[in-house]
Amino acid sequence: MHQSILSTRVGATFVCLGVLYTPALGDEITVQNDSLVDGGTVAICPCFAADEEAAVWLTSPCDGDIVAIQIFWKSFLGGAQISLEDSIIVYQGGNFPNPGPVKDSFDAPALIDGGLNEFRYQDENQTIPISIPVAAGEEFVVSLKFFNANNTNQFLPSVVSDDSGCQSGKNTVKVNGSVWMDACALGVSGDWVIRAVIECSGEPTGAACLPDGSCVEGLTEAQTIDLGGFWNGAGSTCADALCLGACYIPATEQCVQFDRATCDIVGGVWSGPGTTECETPCPADINGDGTLNFFDVSAFLSAFGVQDPIADFNNDGSFNFFDVSEFLQAFSLGCP
């Protein structure tokens, strides 16, 4: 692998063997490490020799089947001819950076320059659908093996990475077709834009932030709600979950980071997991003296009269009866 990276901004051009890609239907979930969105910046890596591989380590959010693989393929100038590469390989999870045994592979993927290529069939005649069983929480590896070297010409198309930093333990390269290495250690600046689409046969699972601030993986949304927790989404892990949140403590007028249970113990007002700003503990206390009385009503009416944003109580950008109604409702509830 010869490191040569070009950065460019892209739109969302999604293609599937020459056919426009349509979003997954039903209970399909796309699992990915990258954060690329429409209009985002990618780093193109025309840095691969023949037989080398670019791979991502992914985790299934449910029991089901891998039904599609997505690979973002792009050249710096665009308009390159279709690239017929060696294969797409799906491995079992192993000991990073080394994948486990091969689960399945698909020969000669045809990659179109300029967007996210999606592959749903094992054959070019599109008669044999991809279907690779996976279990909830199972780690697996998706790899693109190169047939065409692109490390001699920086304008040739290749795989891309996002611009959000290279996550540890998520991206690998099979250097010279023989040795697996951490892509981050090789200087790759982001996560490879290689994804898997999983059709779930069971309810998706993810990381749950519990009331005591702890995190548990492999729970469904319903299980999380039963425990009074916050679900971080299908396929999420505790490594990515933010279980602490902003806690306003009226006694000290401080905003600190606590789990919900600790915030309750100190008599605080918790804003939720992952939050950094405290909610206003008493929104009707317009003058901020800690007491609700005539002076707050007067302050609200004065602000309302000059259309001060503090009087836009429902945050809809307008000043009308609804703001007055919500202020009176908050006033009647009193301060905590």
What would you say this structure looks like, in words?
11% of the residues lie in helices and 33% in strands. The longest helix is centred in the last third of the chain and has 13 residues, at 321-333. The strands form five sheets. Strands 1, 2, 3, 4, 5, 7, 12, 13, 15 and 18 form a ten-stranded mixed beta sheet that branches. It is built from four helices and 24 strands. The N and C termini lie far apart (61 Å). The chain is mainly beta and 336 residues long. The chain has three domains: 6-200, Jelly Rolls; 205-241, no CATH class; 294-333, no CATH class. The relative contact order is 0.15. The model is unreliable at 4-26 (pLDDT under 50). The chain is elongated and about 75 Å long.
SSE topology:
Layout (H helix, E strand, L loop, with lengths): L5 E4 L4 E3 L2 E2 L7 E4 L9 E4 L8 E7 L4 E11 L8 E2 L2 E6 L9 E6 L2 E2 L3 E5 L12 E3 L4 E7 L12 E4 L9 E5 L3 E4 L11 E7 L5 E4 L5 E5 L1 H6 L3 E2 L13 E5 L4 E5 L1 H6 L3 E5 L20 H12 L15 H13 L3
Parallel strand pairs: 2-12
Antiparallel strand pairs: 1-5, 2-3, 4-18, 5-15, 6-14, 6-16, 7-12, 7-13, 7-15, 7-18, 8-11, 9-10, 9-14, 16-17, 19-20, 19-21, 22-23, 22-24
Kindly state the number of beta strands. Answer: 24
Tally the structural domains.
Answer: 3
Query: Main sheet?
Result: 10 strands, mixed
Query: What is the CATH class name of the largest domain?
Result: Mainly Beta
Q: Please state the CA-atom Rg, rounded to the nearest Å.
A: 26 Å
Mean pLDDT: 85
Helical proportion? 10-25%
Q: How do the helices and strands follow one another from N- to C-terminus?
A: EEEEEEEEEEEEEEEEEEEEHEEEHEHH
What is the beta-strand fraction? 25-35%
SS content category: mainly beta
Per CATH, the architecture of the largest domain is Sandwich
Cα separation of the termini: 61 Å
- Low-pLDDT stretches are 4-26
Tally the helices: what do you get?
4
CATH homologous superfamily descriptor of the largest domain = PHR domain
Shape: elongated
CATH topology of the largest domain: Jelly Rolls
